[in-house]
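I'll show a sample.
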Amino acid sequence: MKNRLYGVLLAVVLVLSFAVSGWTADPPKPKGYPERPIEVVCQYGAGGGSDIFVRSLFNAARKDLGVTVNVTNMTGAAGVKASNYVIAQPADGYTIYNFSPEQLINTVMGREDYKAFAPLCNVQMDESVFYVRAESPFKTIQDVIKYAKENPGKLQFTGTTPQSPDEIIINLFAKSAGIKIKYVPFDKAPESHAAVLGGHLDVLHEEPGVIISLVEAKRLRPLIVFTEKRLPNWPDVPTAKELGYDITMGRWRGLAVKKGTSPEIINWLAAVLQKATNAASYKEIAHKSLLDLRPGWKGPAEYGKFWDSEFKSYKEILDDLGYTRKK
């Protein structure tokens, strides 16, 4: 009797210990899913950070998914075109969306509703950096600020899509520095890179990963990083906080499905994708792109709460920058 009671108590203690630590068993594979190819929709062009993200992650997950994964790049309308496409598909787990801050920003601006989607997982927390081409007369970010103050509205920045995190970070910096600039967006990241490399525009906002090779080849020069600490690859490049600008925003990258998709499919997909983030092939790409400096993983429930928190933050920022009318 004592042995039996001891066994029961031990089992209870173990269950409680696992629960407190956050451990859960891998969710079971949904019956009959997946049985055909899965489409992953990316609202940005090929070759950009988000495109590299979905391709590298799903390449690592392909074996466990057991079906073909097709990536569709669908640019235009700051992501609204891609969002509308995903919403028009059945809520069956066969259409997965590269969910980004743009979906929250678009909701603030009244162009879409992020609550039409169900959170799957967040994977990456990227860094924001300003760059100029090697031939630029701007050697430091102070040179950029000085020129902009002497020539209001003449300095031209570029990034990906209008009213995106790129534009928000650029305008937050401009407001903090007391300068007036012009933002010229492109739908595809390589186009914004080419505009700065060709001398057509002055300053590029971009994450490190997709253009590290251009910096290493001395074709682009980083001037300032919007992170808590200096980046290990560029220890001589100051952070915004060091210079008195309290801006540490960066693009996050996650995945979503249409609202109404079964929890069984969502939880199983999240488990498969979390496993993929630990695959050697994915970790190598993430490390080379400096995407392992900030913890990024969030499961479905945590990611949903993160959406709500980020939505409030973007609403406040967009109100403050004058994009929306305060109610």
Notes: The longest strand covers residues 117-125. Confidence is low (pLDDT under 50) at residues 1-23.
